[in-house]
Automatic annotation (TrEMBL):
Gene3D superfamilies cross-referenced by the UniProt entry: 3.40.190.90, Fructose-1,6-Bisphosphatase, subunit A, domain 1 (3.30.540.10)
Gene that this sequence comes from: glpX
A Pfam short name: FBPase_glpX
E.C. number(s) listed in UniProt: 3.1.3.11
InterPro entries listed in its UniProt record: FBPase_class-2/SBPase
Record-given protein name: fructose-bisphosphatase
Molecular function terms, GO-annotated: fructose 1,6-bisphosphate 1-phosphatase activity; metal ion binding
Reactions that this protein is recorded to catalyse: beta-D-fructose 1,6-bisphosphate + H2O = beta-D-fructose 6-phosphate + phosphate
Record-level GO cellular component terms: cytosol
Organism the protein comes from: Spiroplasma culicicola AES-1
UniProt keyword Manganese, yes or no: yes
Associated pathway: Carbohydrate biosynthesis
Similarity comment: family membership: Belongs to the FBPase class 2 family.
Amino acid sequence: MNKDIILLRAVEVAAIATYKYIGKKDKNLVDQAAVEALEVMLRNERGFKLKVINGEGELDEAPMLYVGQMLGDVDNPDAPCFDVSVDPVEGTHPAANNFAGSIAVIAISKENTMLQLPEMYMEKLFVSDEFVDAIDFSKSIVEVANDMQIHARRKDLKCIILDKPRHQKTIEALSAMGIVVRLIQDGDVLAAIDVVNGEADFVYGIGGAPEGSLMASLSIASGCKMYAKLVSYKDIWPNEVETEQRVIKENAWLEKHNIDFDLVFEDTNLVNDQRTRFFATGITAGGTLKPINYRNGKFYVNAFIASHGIVRNIKTIYDIKKVNGLKPDIKYLFEKYKR
């Protein structure tokens, strides 16, 4: 079977597995369901191998979908290998509380083309294809936004930004410039899908670095553009108990990769493959990607694929009885996670 269909089905089934726990106010249960679903769907596929570059964590922290884990046709030396970045539930908090902002997402690229990113913060800017050649991310975001307005010859650009205290001054400044600001609680990868689908001009914010790999894949695959810079934990949480230890780990990673906080990453620095592929399915979703639904023995899922400059928004129906009779691996998941 075509690997794109396999990966699409994997994120769709991951979203279906979470349905039992949507709104149950337990982030761990939501995440565990999606993690198991992805692992079950991908571990025995034939014809290709997958190596997790950015996943749930290291082996001792995450028994499945850990960094370095191999999935697929692992015993076949002739099977091509692909790098993988995966977030079984991007937005566990909105999924657990049943409000907009959660998706299941995976991206792949050729072997040895994805940068493994640390568990630290990253300042990210994702812009539509209109602004591919209009960005200098060494400038402040306010200066960048002004350049974008000049380039577009209009002030009312649409921006999506995480509604966090660290962004309040930026939100006020962008609004004062005439930019239409849409605030979200979680999910900058989901917000980037809205940019690709034409619902916004750019996404900006400081969030998790591993998600940067997913956004970079989406950017390359869709013809948009992304820029990023790493941000120290102490700049966000200067007075927390764990800050000192986090900073020690950050500095070790920076030294290992010869990177500093002033370095501007482009999407191709994070995923160096023009043929990268990006797959996502709505859980509670929001914006242009709709949430999962269930009626009368059928799951209605909404997925998104980007590759080679081609973008697809897909609606799929899973008839549980029919699928259970044909796909025992999916039947196992449907039985375990039925609501």
